[in-house]
Every structure is written in structure tokens, then in C-alpha cells.
Design brief:
alpha/beta; Beta-Lactamase; 7-stranded mixed beta sheet
Length: 362
């Protein structure tokens, strides 16, 4: 079968109908689909040739107007790709062993609510914050983007605000609600996260969403935006609250870190960390969430660097008053309410031995 637009669209449409999360196109294999966490090969499709994957990459990049020479080495390319009104994908195009590979992640058209996603209701309260920095963290594919989109949707549904998003690439399209929303894509609408952020501060926003903090410039500009009376929401690749604070400070030069700790202590409002788990009935995935809300005591811990180790205990104790929670507290709840299995919880836990003890006590 020749790889033309109709064939590609058929393969993508099949994935959308089945509710897959990712589609893989690699030379030597038929297209593979990830469904509820499992990777499955498409049965009636022959293995793809180098020409097939190259053709797919070309079709995805067609709209961009920047040709890529696939015969020479190229960096990874991340772009969004829409299939008419049926779905959007985040496509990652890369080279491996001299051929082109593509992984496409399906992005649902409609933005889910905090409730639909089974996220803790306190996320609405966190999204109500008027200024400062909120960080959403977790490994790739654990729902950071979806969670941030749900928080923006909550703001869009509940109050009049001007929201600017800076994304690479744009994933969810926000419909006009109570808010004015400007969405800018790095690469096509603006040069870099930092440039767009600096411009955004001049565009009178209430809320700025930055797709991801990957470097010192973005981290510094986000901090500045948070200090000047904006609410900044961004994602960072870290497993939990404490490692998020360490990573943020660690993006700066060692001699600047003490000052950054103080500024972060003043600006940080919350850290929401995610791990997606397979639900007991297997047909869906549920988030386990660690939530840090920055209280006065926690501000002091962040400012003085050496006291970060006290934070997990403060989260544990801040549950009733502030709806904070450690991963293991949430995992325990999810097991006790029968949503996930004990094995799943222990596997996802930060502290498996302790979790097992607590599961026995309950």
C-alpha cells in the first residue's frame, strides 16, 4: 500500500475512534497504537518502509512551509497536526538508525474539567489564586498538559480574566468563555518561550500559562512575571514537590541560588505532581496527585534551602487544613476506595515499604 494522505488519515481516524493515546510509525514495523497503556501493532497493515515514514513526516510538516531534508541529520521536530475536526495530535518526528520515525500523541478536542479527570477538587481553589507561581509536575505522559488545561478551563468558566498561553506546540484549543484567551505557539507565533513571556507581560494579562520550564531564561522570566502581580502556571519535569523546588533553584548559577530561593519562597503558591495509574477496571487511567500549597512555614523552608527535607511531613500534616497531600496519602485513598489495586499503588509509591505497612494497618 502506498502511503498517501488518505491512508494516513485512515490510520489516524482508526486511532481516534478506538481512543488510543499514541500512534507509532517506525520502519520495519506496522503502525503501533497505545491503548490504555498497552502498545499494540495494527494487524492488517504491512511493516512500514523508509519511504512510508518519510512520506508521513512530509505530510505532517506540509502546513509548516519549512522543508526538512530527511537525508541529512536533523534535530527532533515537535509539531501539532489536526485531522479536520476530529482530533489533534502532537507529532514528534525524529531520526533513528538513518530512517525517520514518528510518534503522534492524540490530544482530545475538548478540554476536560477538573472533575471529569478525577483530579482533587482543591485544584479549583489553587486555580483561583490571583498571583504567584503554580507548577504542575510529573514525567512525560502523566497528564501535566491536560491538568493545566483543566485549570485554565476552570478560570475561563468562573471569572473574567485575560489569559495568555505560550505553548510548544499548542495542544488544547480553549473556547471563548468568561475569559479573553490568547494562545501563542513557539516556532510559528513567537521565537522562544522567553521572548513570548517578555511580550506577554506587556499585554496586560491576569494569567500566563507557559507550556514548560526547560531552561534558566524561562525560569527567571516566569519568576519575574509571578512577582509582578500575574498568576503564572507552568509545567516542569520532576517527580514530586521537593525535587521540583530543587530543580527550579538548580536551573540558576550557584552564586544566584540563595536569592532565587528567597524569591521562589515568596512567589510559589502550589506544586501539583502527577502520576497516572491504571485503574482497577483497566479501561482508564487515574491520576495519583501530590499537592503542596505554600503556607508561611513552607515559605521559610524554601527560603532556607537546608530545610526542604521537612516539607513532606508538612504536606502530610496539612491535609485537613489546606487539602495538601503526599502521593502515598492519595495512593492509600485510591486503594481504600477500590479504584486502584494494591500492587499498582505499591509500584507507584515514593515509599513502598511504608505504604505497605499503612495498607496493612487500615
Amino acid at each position: 500500500m502506498g502511503m498517501d494522505k488518505a491512508t494516513l488519515q485512515k490510520l489516524l481516524a482508526f486511532g481516534i475512534e478506538r481512543g488510543v493515546s499514541d500512534i507509532h510509525f517506525e520502519v520495519g514495523y506496522p503502525p503501533h497504537y497505545r491503548l490504555h497503556g498497552e502498545l499494540l501493532g495494527a494487524i492488517k497493515v504491512p511493516p512500514l518502509t523508509a519511504g512510508d515514514t518519510e512520506a508521513i513526516a512530509r505530510m505532517i510538516l506540509e502546513e509548516r512551509g519549512t522543508p526538512v531534508d530527511f537525508t541529512r541529520p536533523f534535530g527532533e521536530i515537535d509539531v501539532s497536526y489536526a485531522l479536520a475536526t476530529r482530533g489533534r495530535f502532537r507529532a514528534s518526528i525524529f531520526r533513528q538508525r538513518g530512517t525517520v520515525g514518528i510518534v503522534m500523541r492524540l490530544i482530545p478536542i475538548n478540554v476536560m474539567t477538573i472533575e471529569n479527570l478525577n483530579l482533587p477538587p482543591v485544584l479549583a481553589e489553587i486555580a483561583d489564586t490571583r498571583r504567584g507561581l503554580i507548577l504542575v509536575t510529573g514525567a512525560t505522559g502523566n497528564g501535566k498538559t491536560t491538568t493545566i488545561a483543566a485549570m485554565l478551563r476552570y478560570i475561563n468558566d468562573t471569572r473574567h480574566a485575560h489569559i495568555i498561553t505560550i505553548e510548544d506546540p499548542i495542544e488544547f484549543l480553549h473556547e471563548p468563555g468568561k475569559c479573553m484567551i490568547i494562545q501563542r505557539e513557539v516556532g510559528s507565533d513567537t521565537e522562544s518561550f522567553k521572548d513570548a513571556l517578555v511580550a506577554a507581560m506587556r499585554q496586560d494579562p491576569d494569567v500566563i500559562m507557559v507550556g514548560e520550564i526547560r531552561d534558566r531564561e524561562t525560569a527567571a522570566t516566569c519568576l519575574k512575571a509571578a512577582e509582578t502581580g500575574h498568576l503564572v502556571i507552568s509545567a516542569i519535569h520532576t517527580p514530586d514537590s521537593v525535587s521540583t523546588i530543587q530543580r527550579y533553584v538548580g536551573l540558576f548559577e550557584p552564586d544566584a541560588q540563595d536569592v532565587i530561593r528567597e524569591r521562589l519562597g515568596d512567589s510559589l503558591q502550589a506544586v501539583v505532581s502527577l502520576r497516572l495509574l491504571v485503574a482497577k477496571e483497566g479501561r482508564r487511567r487515574l491520576p495519583a496527585v501530590e499537592i503542596l500549597r505554600v503556607t508561611r512555614t513552607i515559605r521559610e523552608c524554601i527560603r532556607t534551602g537546608g530545610r526542604l527535607a521537612d516539607i513532606p511531613d508538612m504536606i502530610r500534616k496539612g491535609r485537613d487544613l489546606y487539602s495538601m497531600q503526599l502521593f502515598d496519602q492519595h495512593l492509600l485513598d485510591l486503594v481504600n476506595t477500590g479504584l486502584i489495586s494494591m500492587e499498582t499503588a505499591i509500584y507507584a509509591s515514593s515509599n513502598p515499604e511504608e505504604l505497605e505497612r499503612n495498607l496493612r494497618i487500615e
